[in-house]
Amino acid sequence: MAVIPKQDPVAPVDPAVAQDTVLVLDFGSQYSQLIARRVREARVYCELVPGTISADEVRRRSPRGLIFSGGPASVYDEGAPQADPALYELDLPILGVCYGMQLLAHQLGGAVKAAVRREYGHASISIDERTGIFEHLPSEIDVWMSHGDVITAIPPGFHAAAHSMNSPYAAISGPKGRYGIQFHPEVVHTPLGREILRNFLIDVCGCAGTWEPSSFIEMAVSDIRTRVGSGKVLCALSGGVDSAVAATLVHQAIGDQLTCVFVDNGLLRRAEGERVVEVMSHQRHINLVHVDATDRFLSALADVTDPEEKRRRIGRTFIEVFDTEARRLGDIDFLAQGTLYPDVIESTSHDTHNAQKIKTHHNVGGLPEDLRFQLVEPLRYLFKDEVRQVGLALGLPEDMVWRQPFPGPGLAIRIIGAVTAERLDTLRAADWVVIDEIKRSGLYRKVWQSFAILTPISSVGVMGDNRTYANVVAIRIVESDDGMTADWAKIPYDVLATISRRIVNEVAGVNRVVYDISSKPPSTIEWE
Ligand code: XMP
């Protein structure tokens, strides 16, 4: 038996959750995930499902309403994604956004055609009907438009709810709580977008708006108990928040039936390995197997300079070590993983299938094909910030819950060139200063990542009366929402100055510090 593949995105949901669920039907917009985030922020549980979901499946999940996302297609294109026409018989409120609105109009008997001029960017609309989704809003609002098609005739029973200079139908409303909006309420450039979504969710769909990530704990715990029964569960800890929260949830559900394995690859930051052991084993009393595999990883990496080859070797070594431990423990039925909702969406959503992989990412998830486990993924419906809230509600310490993202291959891809124990020590010491100063200045949670890189360059310096020839350390601090794009952080000069001074004074073998002022794209966040 092989690892059971990830569940289908339209797998059964727990009825406790389904009570107040809204489904976001994804027609391929780059903003679909963002709509789902905004709905959750309005404290309504929602899931993103393929736009082509069947009406039967929707009925089975008994949502309170549907949101049709935008999408790149034109409704009359051959092969353009369509909603199941039977959905309209379900009597559910529907909010169609951009392509979703055009689809609604097209399928309900209206007409859509290519606009003379593509409308993109800021626009102002006048609201003709300040009820329903526009209740309590001013009569003029700023919105963000991004569309190439327009509605030329609205479906029977519908009327214009808002208009703009370019279109008599910036928003339409119809019977049964059905709305179409030409603009994007989910982006920040539509300042009142959250109100519009909230009106739809609470007033039109009748959701309570009381969902919160911690209400998820009880449900997850009971789910895990039902699924696992008296089985044994294994969980790989990486030092990151996702695996820590997943393990803690599973432990809350089944106690000693869980064993965690922490493979210390020797590529973590200073004190991180110790912290995992202290929190998970000593504070939480979780069965923990701590494998110090530093030497094994270092010999696998000996003389390797190619970044992808480093990743491959680290991934392979991890699998070998984990595999040995799992077999030694024997008698394991389930593997718990900290898979998050964006990963689930990423692996199932049609529009991301072709997304180009820039780097091969090896996390603790890469496991041997023949390990006989079924997967337990308690976080598979949560976004990162929700996982953090769950972690806090479970009593995990703040430093663990708020840890900045850290790549699976760790410091190995922040040492440019060959990785040695000595260079790791140098980088760890410099990196410690960066984190310490960024925390001290209150910036740690404001930036996406802050770290040091050990460059392969040596430079001339002068210390006291002596000439030095020593390592150059680079500092990378970036702001980002999701790691896909990033901007270098405009850190106050005095913070940079302190970091630089401390590194040169405290870290042996470093005589120069430079700050990376490149954005992503074209640069990546990591240097390798
Ligand atoms: P890049 O360097 O591609 O990084 O701009 C984007 C985000 O991904 C992280 N990253 C990795 N994470 N394994 C990981 O688990 C990897 O091999 C890897 N490479 C980059 C990086 O830290 C940033 O947050």
Automatic annotation (TrEMBL):
ATP binds at S238, G239, G240, V241, D242, S243, A244. GO terms for cellular component: cytosol. Keywords: ATP-binding, Glutamine amidotransferase, GMP biosynthesis, Ligase, Nucleotide-binding, Purine biosynthesis. Its EC number is 6.3.5.2. Gene3D superfamilies: 3.30.300.10, 3.40.50.880, HUPs. The keyword ATP-binding applies. It comes from the Bacteria. It holds the Pfam family NAD_synthase. It catalyses: XMP + L-glutamine + ATP + H2O = GMP + L-glutamate + AMP + diphosphate + 2 H(+). PROSITE patterns: GATASE_TYPE_1, GMPS_ATP_PPASE. Pathway: Purine metabolism; GMP biosynthesis; GMP from XMP (L-Gln route): step 1/1. The active site is at C98, H184, E186. Residues 211-403 form the GMPS ATP-PPase domain. NCBIfam families: guaA_Cterm, guaA_Nterm, PRK00074.1. Homodimer. PANTHER family: GMP SYNTHASE [GLUTAMINE-HYDROLYZING], GMP SYNTHASE-RELATED. Catalyzes the synthesis of GMP from XMP. This is GMP synthase [glutamine-hydrolyzing]. It comes from Candidatus Aeolococcus gillhamiae. The lineage of its organism: Bacteria, Bacillati, Candidatus Dormiibacterota, Candidatus Dormibacteria, Candidatus Aeolococcales. The gene is guaA.
